[in-house]
Design a protein that fits this description.
The chain folds into two domains: about 190 residues, 2-Layer Sandwich (BirA Bifunctional Protein, domain 2); about 35 residues. The radius of gyration is 17 Å and the shape is globular. The strands form two sheets. It has a seven-stranded mixed sheet, with helices on both faces. Helices cover about 30% and strands about 30% of the residues. The protein is built from five helices and eleven strands. α2 packs across α4. The chain binds biotin.
Length: about 240
Amino acid sequence: LGKHVIHKTSIPSTQTLAQKLAFEGADHGTVVIADEQTAGKGRLNRAWFSPNQGIWMSIILRPSFLPLQASQLTLLTATILAKSVEEVTGLTPSIKWPNDLLIQDRKVAGILTEMQSEHDHIQYLIIGIGMNVNQNEKDFPEELHSKATSIQIESGKEWDMRIIIQAVLQHFEKQYDHYLQKGFSTVKEIWEEYGYKIGEVVTLRTTQEEKQVTLIGLQEDGSLLIEDSGTRHPLYSGEIIW
Ligand code: BTN
């Protein structure tokens, strides 16, 4: 992993470039990193604010597992980011299902997984990672103030982003192999350790209603198990508005 690293100063999106390279045959483990993105993409077609002070990267993977497992890999990536941030900075992020990294209730990192598959075969998977590192409060646009934070804001100092990138790639290499050999159970355990409000009662807003539920934990398929007046059922992404 990371044997081929493509570094750009400013591009529209590492995700788009990684897709193009993967389509053209780039190797498993190729990493695309940009100092700045001018058209960063978030989940659900949102724009992703990507100035110079953050880590914006996309990892190309060519796994032999089934397309179904892609969501497990996204959850794995969230645990890797949490561990890397904790190891380098001493801050302990939590993971808000499915894969937002929060510190003090504000988002510090996000993951966007995109897949090209045919039948039961994955041609390539692109894991996009965005992490706010050295932004100050004033660097964020007004509408993000209550929602977004950075490692610098939370720790009170500036960080060498290369050290964080290195930690992420090292953990990724190790944990990805471990996951291939041992399956999802360790990922699930670590995810739940960092899981935001796991075991707590939260207000859940779905597209239809609003109610109090208890967050129980992860399921093998990447869904979130919740308990609602005594009965347990899984929640799939897209259904939940926090
Ligand atoms: C989210 O919505 O939480 C996911 C954000 C993912 C952002 C990263 S930054 C690197 C890669 N390139 C993109 O355009 N998006 C992802």
